[in-house]
Design brief:
Length: 171
């Protein structure tokens, strides 16, 4: 089987690292008790749920893109333990592709390091792209897992033979 897996929100905890950086940039914690481990209730949770300004979010993303270690320093999501365990046990049996939309300094190398550290010691196949549907089609994936509804729809539209899975998330 050929399996495609998104990272952030599926197995990697982007949320807590992003929130810590947001607090550092703005000097104020508007997340309060809503911080992870409670997954955010909205895709744009800092602005839509917690009142941060769009320019704050832009400043955070500017720092993420300039940070040579942001992507490699993410923690694994605790609720992804089963998937992480399955991947470690089945990496030799299946072709597994990690497809994620990340950018910044050495984003691909950081991502490969993270996957090797948390998911598989074998050299991972990592692709960085916002166009997950085309990648699913090009790789002829049998299955694809992503936490963003729009990505799942994109894969369904562009690669109809790929079975897609959307983890249960509050956003």
């Amino acid at each position: 089987m050929k399996i495609g897996i998104d990272l952030d929100g599926v197995v990697a905890n982007f949320y807590s690292a992003y929130e810590r950086l947001h607090i550092a940039v703005t000097g104020e914690d508007k997340f309060g008790d809503a911080k992870y481990p409670n997954l955010p209730g909205h895709w744009h949770w800092p602005t839509k749920l917690h009142g941060y300004k769009p320019e704050d979010t832009s400043a955070v993303w500017k720092l993420i893109k300039a940070d040579p270690k942001f992507w490699r320093n993410l923690e694994a999501l605790p609720e992804a333990g089963f998937l992480r365990s399955w991947l470690k046990q089945n990496e030799e049996k299946h072709d597994i592709y990690y497809i994620t939309d990340r950018s910044g300094v050495d984003a691909k190398a950081q991502t490969q390091w993270w996957v090797e550290m948390y998911l598989t010691p074998k050299s991972p196949t990592v692709s960085l792209s916002p166009d997950k549907g085309l990648l699913a089609k090009a790789r002829k994936l049998d299955f694809y897992i992503d936490d963003k509804f729009g990505n799942v729809i994109d894969v369904q539209d562009k690669s109809p033979d790929t079975q897609v899975y959307l983890p249960d998330r509050p956003y």
